[in-house]
Protein backbone atom coordinates (compact mmCIF):
# COMPACT_ATOMS: atom_id res chain seq x y z
CA UNK A 1 0.00 0.00 0.00
CA UNK A 2 1.00 3.64 -0.41
CA UNK A 3 2.10 5.73 2.55
CA UNK A 4 3.91 8.97 3.37
CA UNK A 5 6.62 8.86 6.03
CA UNK A 6 10.17 9.83 6.91
CA UNK A 7 13.41 8.48 8.35
CA UNK A 8 15.12 11.79 9.25
CA UNK A 9 13.62 14.67 11.22
CA UNK A 10 14.28 17.51 8.78
CA UNK A 11 13.14 21.08 8.15
CA UNK A 12 10.01 21.10 6.05
CA UNK A 13 11.88 22.85 3.22
CA UNK A 14 14.07 19.75 2.76
CA UNK A 15 12.89 17.51 -0.09
CA UNK A 16 13.45 14.46 2.15
CA UNK A 17 11.29 15.76 5.02
CA UNK A 18 8.67 13.31 3.70
CA UNK A 19 9.05 10.25 1.47
CA UNK A 20 6.57 8.40 -0.73
CA UNK A 21 6.54 4.77 0.44
CA UNK A 22 5.22 1.32 -0.47
CA UNK A 23 4.62 -0.84 2.63
CA UNK A 24 2.64 -3.93 3.61
CA UNK A 25 -1.06 -3.58 4.37
CA UNK A 26 -1.75 -4.35 8.06
CA UNK A 27 -4.41 -6.78 9.31
CA UNK A 28 -6.91 -5.93 12.07
CA UNK A 29 -6.83 -7.79 15.37
CA UNK A 30 -8.79 -7.38 18.59
CA UNK A 31 -11.04 -4.31 18.44
CA UNK A 32 -9.15 -2.71 15.56
CA UNK A 33 -10.78 -1.76 12.28
CA UNK A 34 -8.84 -1.45 9.01
CA UNK A 35 -9.77 1.79 7.25
CA UNK A 36 -9.24 2.64 3.59
CA UNK A 37 -8.15 6.25 4.08
CA UNK A 38 -9.75 8.77 1.72
CA UNK A 39 -8.56 12.04 3.31
CA UNK A 40 -6.31 13.23 6.12
CA UNK A 41 -5.82 16.58 7.87
CA UNK A 42 -2.69 18.17 9.29
CA UNK A 43 -2.51 19.56 12.84
CA UNK A 44 0.14 21.44 14.82
CA UNK A 45 0.90 18.16 16.63
CA UNK A 46 2.00 16.67 13.29
CA UNK A 47 4.58 19.41 12.84
CA UNK A 48 5.80 19.07 16.43
CA UNK A 49 6.33 15.32 16.05
CA UNK A 50 8.16 15.82 12.74
CA UNK A 51 10.21 18.85 13.84
CA UNK A 52 14.01 18.69 13.29
CA UNK A 53 15.94 16.66 15.85
CA UNK A 54 19.07 14.53 15.99
CA UNK A 55 17.36 11.20 15.43
CA UNK A 56 17.14 8.66 12.59
CA UNK A 57 14.44 6.02 12.20
CA UNK A 58 15.66 2.56 11.11
CA UNK A 59 12.33 2.03 9.32
CA UNK A 60 10.23 4.92 7.99
CA UNK A 61 7.93 6.52 10.52
CA UNK A 62 4.38 7.28 9.47
CA UNK A 63 2.52 9.97 11.38
CA UNK A 64 -0.87 11.65 10.90
CA UNK A 65 -3.70 12.13 13.39
CA UNK A 66 -6.86 12.82 11.41
CA UNK A 67 -8.59 10.65 8.81
CA UNK A 68 -11.85 9.89 7.08
CA UNK A 69 -12.45 6.72 5.11
CA UNK A 70 -14.24 3.40 4.63
CA UNK A 71 -14.01 0.37 6.90
CA UNK A 72 -12.24 -2.33 4.87
CA UNK A 73 -12.14 -5.08 7.51
CA UNK A 74 -12.71 -5.52 11.26
CA UNK A 75 -10.89 -7.41 14.00
CA UNK A 76 -12.46 -10.45 15.70
CA UNK A 77 -13.56 -8.45 18.75
CA UNK A 78 -14.90 -5.40 16.90
CA UNK A 79 -18.64 -4.79 17.29
CA UNK A 80 -19.25 -1.12 16.45
CA UNK A 81 -18.58 -1.13 12.70
CA UNK A 82 -18.79 -3.40 9.66
CA UNK A 83 -17.02 -3.30 6.28
CA UNK A 84 -18.35 -0.47 4.14
CA UNK A 85 -19.13 1.87 7.04
CA UNK A 86 -17.85 5.44 6.67
CA UNK A 87 -15.80 6.60 9.66
CA UNK A 88 -13.77 9.58 10.85
CA UNK A 89 -11.27 9.62 13.71
CA UNK A 90 -8.03 11.06 15.10
CA UNK A 91 -6.05 7.89 15.75
CA UNK A 92 -3.58 7.10 18.51
CA UNK A 93 -0.28 8.96 18.89
CA UNK A 94 1.43 5.78 20.15
CA UNK A 95 0.69 3.88 16.89
CA UNK A 96 1.47 4.21 13.20
CA UNK A 97 -0.36 7.21 11.78
CA UNK A 98 -3.10 7.97 9.29
CA UNK A 99 -0.87 9.06 6.38
CA UNK A 100 -1.30 5.67 4.74
CA UNK A 101 -3.64 4.08 2.22
CA UNK A 102 -4.91 1.63 4.87
CA UNK A 103 -4.80 2.32 8.60
CA UNK A 104 -5.57 0.43 11.81
CA UNK A 105 -7.49 2.18 14.58
CA UNK A 106 -9.27 0.99 17.71
CA UNK A 107 -12.99 1.21 16.97
CA UNK A 108 -13.64 2.85 20.35
CA UNK A 109 -11.98 6.09 19.21
CA UNK A 110 -13.63 6.24 15.76
CA UNK A 111 -17.05 7.68 14.95
CA UNK A 112 -19.54 7.42 12.10
CA UNK A 113 -18.64 10.02 9.47
CA UNK A 114 -21.20 12.80 9.01
CA UNK A 115 -23.27 11.61 6.04
CA UNK A 116 -23.66 15.14 4.70
CA UNK A 117 -19.90 15.76 4.42
CA UNK A 118 -17.32 14.62 1.91
CA UNK A 119 -14.36 12.67 3.24
CA UNK A 120 -12.20 15.79 2.92
CA UNK A 121 -14.68 17.88 4.90
CA UNK A 122 -14.95 15.17 7.57
CA UNK A 123 -11.18 14.64 7.88
CA UNK A 124 -10.83 18.24 9.04
CA UNK A 125 -12.77 17.57 12.22
CA UNK A 126 -11.84 14.62 14.50
CA UNK A 127 -8.77 15.72 16.49
CA UNK A 128 -9.96 19.26 17.01
CA UNK A 129 -13.53 18.17 17.71
CA UNK A 130 -12.42 15.71 20.39
CA UNK A 131 -10.10 18.32 21.89
CA UNK A 132 -12.70 21.08 22.07
CA UNK A 133 -15.50 18.76 23.20
CA UNK A 134 -13.41 17.25 26.00
CA UNK A 135 -12.07 20.68 26.99
CA UNK A 136 -15.52 22.20 27.37
CA UNK A 137 -17.77 19.35 28.44
CA UNK A 138 -15.43 16.91 30.22
CA UNK A 139 -12.83 19.24 31.73
CA UNK A 140 -14.73 22.50 32.39
CA UNK A 141 -17.98 20.66 33.10
CA UNK A 142 -20.15 22.76 30.80
CA UNK A 143 -23.44 21.03 29.96
CA UNK A 144 -23.59 20.52 26.18
CA UNK A 145 -27.39 20.36 26.16
CA UNK A 146 -28.17 23.90 27.32
CA UNK A 147 -28.56 24.18 31.11
CA UNK A 148 -25.54 26.53 31.17
CA UNK A 149 -26.93 28.75 28.40
CA UNK A 150 -26.10 32.41 28.94
CA UNK A 151 -22.71 31.77 30.52
CA UNK A 152 -19.67 33.26 28.81
CA UNK A 153 -16.50 31.68 27.44
CA UNK A 154 -13.32 33.35 26.20
CA UNK A 155 -11.57 31.28 23.52
CA UNK A 156 -7.98 32.46 23.12
CA UNK A 157 -6.64 31.44 19.72
CA UNK A 158 -10.09 30.90 18.23
CA UNK A 159 -9.09 31.00 14.56
CA UNK A 160 -7.18 27.70 14.58
CA UNK A 161 -8.59 24.22 14.17
CA UNK A 162 -9.58 23.66 17.82
CA UNK A 163 -11.03 27.14 18.22
CA UNK A 164 -12.99 26.86 14.98
CA UNK A 165 -14.96 23.84 16.14
CA UNK A 166 -14.91 25.07 19.75
CA UNK A 167 -16.85 28.23 18.83
CA UNK A 168 -19.57 26.10 17.29
CA UNK A 169 -19.78 23.64 20.19
CA UNK A 170 -19.96 26.51 22.68
CA UNK A 171 -22.75 28.19 20.72
CA UNK A 172 -24.64 24.88 20.56
CA UNK A 173 -24.48 24.80 24.36
CA UNK A 174 -25.93 28.32 24.49
CA UNK A 175 -22.80 30.14 25.63
CA UNK A 176 -21.80 33.70 24.79
CA UNK A 177 -18.50 33.37 22.91
CA UNK A 178 -15.69 35.92 23.04
CA UNK A 179 -13.13 34.82 20.45
CA UNK A 180 -9.62 36.12 19.92
CA UNK A 181 -8.08 36.57 16.48
CA UNK A 182 -5.28 38.83 15.27
CA UNK A 183 -5.83 39.22 11.51
CA UNK A 184 -8.75 40.47 9.40
CA UNK A 185 -9.11 37.03 7.75
CA UNK A 186 -9.28 35.14 11.04
CA UNK A 187 -11.53 37.77 12.63
CA UNK A 188 -14.04 37.29 9.82
CA UNK A 189 -13.62 33.51 10.04
CA UNK A 190 -14.51 33.34 13.76
CA UNK A 191 -17.44 35.73 13.34
CA UNK A 192 -18.79 33.58 10.51
CA UNK A 193 -18.52 30.54 12.81
CA UNK A 194 -20.73 32.26 15.38
CA UNK A 195 -18.51 34.22 17.78
CA UNK A 196 -20.49 36.96 19.56
CA UNK A 197 -17.44 39.18 20.10
CA UNK A 198 -13.93 39.24 18.64
CA UNK A 199 -10.86 40.72 20.35
CA UNK A 200 -7.24 40.86 19.24
CA UNK A 201 -4.88 38.60 21.22
CA UNK A 202 -1.89 40.67 20.09
CA UNK A 203 -3.28 43.62 22.05
CA UNK A 204 -4.51 44.03 25.64
CA UNK A 205 -7.18 41.33 25.92
CA UNK A 206 -8.29 42.41 29.40
CA UNK A 207 -8.95 45.98 28.30
CA UNK A 208 -10.80 44.86 25.18
CA UNK A 209 -13.06 42.45 27.08
CA UNK A 210 -13.90 45.06 29.70
CA UNK A 211 -14.68 47.58 26.98
CA UNK A 212 -17.43 45.13 26.03
CA UNK A 213 -18.91 45.65 29.49
CA UNK A 214 -17.76 42.23 30.68
CA UNK A 215 -15.77 42.26 33.93
CA UNK A 216 -15.19 38.52 34.22
CA UNK A 217 -15.96 35.46 32.08
CA UNK A 218 -17.29 32.13 33.32
CA UNK A 219 -14.91 29.90 31.34
CA UNK A 220 -11.62 30.40 29.47
CA UNK A 221 -10.01 28.12 26.89
CA UNK A 222 -6.37 28.75 25.95
CA UNK A 223 -6.07 27.23 22.49
CA UNK A 224 -2.78 28.78 21.40
CA UNK A 225 -0.09 29.22 24.06
CA UNK A 226 0.33 29.98 27.75
CA UNK A 227 1.81 33.44 27.36
CA UNK A 228 -1.80 34.53 27.97
CA UNK A 229 -1.88 32.92 31.42
CA UNK A 230 -1.91 36.16 33.45
CA UNK A 231 -4.65 37.53 31.22
CA UNK A 232 -6.75 34.41 31.81
CA UNK A 233 -6.27 34.61 35.59
CA UNK A 234 -7.34 38.26 35.59
CA UNK A 235 -10.48 37.64 33.53
CA UNK A 236 -11.77 34.38 34.99
CA UNK A 237 -14.65 34.80 37.40
CA UNK A 238 -14.35 33.61 41.00
CA UNK A 239 -14.84 29.81 41.02
CA UNK A 240 -14.56 29.71 37.23
CA UNK A 241 -12.39 27.36 35.20
CA UNK A 242 -9.52 27.67 32.72
CA UNK A 243 -8.59 24.87 30.29
CA UNK A 244 -5.41 24.73 28.21
CA UNK A 245 -4.07 22.47 25.48
CA UNK A 246 -0.56 23.95 25.59
CA UNK A 247 2.28 22.34 27.52
CA UNK A 248 4.58 25.07 28.78
CA UNK A 249 7.74 25.84 30.68
CA UNK A 250 6.64 29.44 31.24
CA UNK A 251 6.11 30.61 34.82
CA UNK A 252 2.48 30.34 35.92
CA UNK A 253 1.66 32.38 39.01
CA UNK A 254 -1.09 30.68 41.03
CA UNK A 255 -1.84 33.36 43.63
CA UNK A 256 -4.71 34.85 41.64
CA UNK A 257 -6.18 31.41 41.01
CA UNK A 258 -6.15 30.63 44.73
CA UNK A 259 -7.79 33.93 45.68
CA UNK A 260 -10.59 33.21 43.20
CA UNK A 261 -10.83 29.49 44.04
CA UNK A 262 -10.58 29.01 40.28
CA UNK A 263 -9.62 25.74 38.62
CA UNK A 264 -7.09 24.82 35.92
CA UNK A 265 -7.61 21.86 33.60
CA UNK A 266 -5.39 20.28 30.97
CA UNK A 267 -6.78 18.75 27.82
CA UNK A 268 -4.88 16.12 25.79
CA UNK A 269 -7.15 14.20 23.46
CA UNK A 270 -4.70 11.30 23.10
CA UNK A 271 -4.81 10.55 26.85
CA UNK A 272 -7.63 8.02 26.58
CA UNK A 273 -6.00 5.93 23.84
CA UNK A 274 -2.47 6.36 25.17
CA UNK A 275 -3.45 5.03 28.60
CA UNK A 276 -6.20 2.67 27.41
CA UNK A 277 -8.65 4.22 29.86
CA UNK A 278 -11.87 2.42 30.71
CA UNK A 279 -13.88 5.19 29.02
CA UNK A 280 -12.13 5.16 25.63
CA UNK A 281 -15.49 4.59 23.94
CA UNK A 282 -16.53 8.12 24.94
CA UNK A 283 -14.59 9.37 21.91
CA UNK A 284 -16.66 7.11 19.64
CA UNK A 285 -19.80 8.51 21.25
CA UNK A 286 -18.82 12.16 21.00
CA UNK A 287 -17.70 11.90 17.37
CA UNK A 288 -20.98 10.24 16.46
CA UNK A 289 -22.90 12.89 18.44
CA UNK A 290 -21.16 15.73 16.59
CA UNK A 291 -21.78 13.94 13.26
CA UNK A 292 -25.47 14.08 14.09
CA UNK A 293 -25.29 17.83 14.79
CA UNK A 294 -23.46 18.36 11.49
CA UNK A 295 -26.06 16.37 9.55
CA UNK A 296 -28.76 18.46 11.25
CA UNK A 297 -27.10 21.60 9.87
CA UNK A 298 -26.10 22.91 13.31
CA UNK A 299 -22.30 22.60 12.94
CA UNK A 300 -20.17 22.93 9.83
CA UNK A 301 -16.79 21.66 8.74
CA UNK A 302 -13.72 23.73 9.62
CA UNK A 303 -11.85 22.77 6.43
CA UNK A 304 -10.19 25.83 4.89
CA UNK A 305 -7.91 24.38 2.20
CA UNK A 306 -7.62 21.08 0.30
CA UNK A 307 -4.55 19.60 -1.39
CA UNK A 308 -4.52 16.49 -3.60
CA UNK A 309 -3.22 13.79 -3.81
CA UNK A 310 -1.88 12.44 -0.51
CA UNK A 311 1.84 12.36 -1.26
CA UNK A 312 5.17 13.58 0.11
CA UNK A 313 5.12 16.89 -1.77
CA UNK A 314 1.65 17.88 -0.56
CA UNK A 315 2.42 16.70 2.96
CA UNK A 316 5.45 19.00 3.03
CA UNK A 317 3.30 21.88 1.77
CA UNK A 318 0.62 21.28 4.41
CA UNK A 319 3.24 21.20 7.16
CA UNK A 320 4.80 24.38 5.78
CA UNK A 321 1.45 26.17 5.90
CA UNK A 322 0.86 25.07 9.51
CA UNK A 323 4.35 26.19 10.54
CA UNK A 324 3.75 29.72 9.25
CA UNK A 325 1.23 30.18 12.06
CA UNK A 326 -1.06 31.94 9.57
CA UNK A 327 -3.44 29.10 8.76
CA UNK A 328 -7.10 29.34 9.72
CA UNK A 329 -9.31 26.30 10.23
CA UNK A 330 -7.91 23.02 8.90
CA UNK A 331 -5.74 21.99 5.94
CA UNK A 332 -6.78 18.68 4.36
CA UNK A 333 -5.10 16.37 1.86
CA UNK A 334 -7.29 13.91 -0.05
CA UNK A 335 -6.93 10.82 -2.29
CA UNK A 336 -3.97 8.53 -2.76
Automatic annotation (TrEMBL):
Subcellular location: Cytoplasm
GO molecular function: oxidoreductase activity; RNA binding; zinc ion binding
Keyword GTP-binding: no
Organism name: Litoreibacter meonggei
Keywords: Cytoplasm, Metal-binding, NADP, Oxidoreductase, RNA-binding, Zinc
PROSITE patterns, per database record: QOR_ZETA_CRYSTAL
Pfam families: ADH_N, ADH_zinc_N_2
NCBIfam families in UniProt: adh_fam_1 (TIGR02817)
Principal location: cytoplasm
InterPro entries: ADH-like_N, ADH_Zn_typ-1, ER, GroES-like_sf, NAD(P)-bd_dom_sf, Quin_OxRdtase/zeta-crystal_CS, Zinc-ADH_QOR/CCCR
CDD domains recorded: AL_MDR
Quaternary data: Homotetramer.
Lineage: Bacteria, Pseudomonadati, Pseudomonadota, Alphaproteobacteria, Rhodobacterales
Annotated protein name in UniProt: Zinc-type alcohol dehydrogenase-like protein
Origin superkingdom: Bacteria
Domain Enoyl reductase (ER): 15-333
Amino acid sequence: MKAVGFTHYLPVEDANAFLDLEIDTPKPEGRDILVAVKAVAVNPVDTKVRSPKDKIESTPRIIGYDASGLVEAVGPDATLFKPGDEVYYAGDITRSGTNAEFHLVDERIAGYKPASLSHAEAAALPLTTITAYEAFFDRLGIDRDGPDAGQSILIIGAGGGVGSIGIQLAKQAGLTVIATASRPQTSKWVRDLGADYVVNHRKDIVAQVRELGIQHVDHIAIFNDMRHWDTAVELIRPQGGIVSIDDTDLPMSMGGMKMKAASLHWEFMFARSMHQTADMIEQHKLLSYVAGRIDAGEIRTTMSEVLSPINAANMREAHRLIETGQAKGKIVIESF
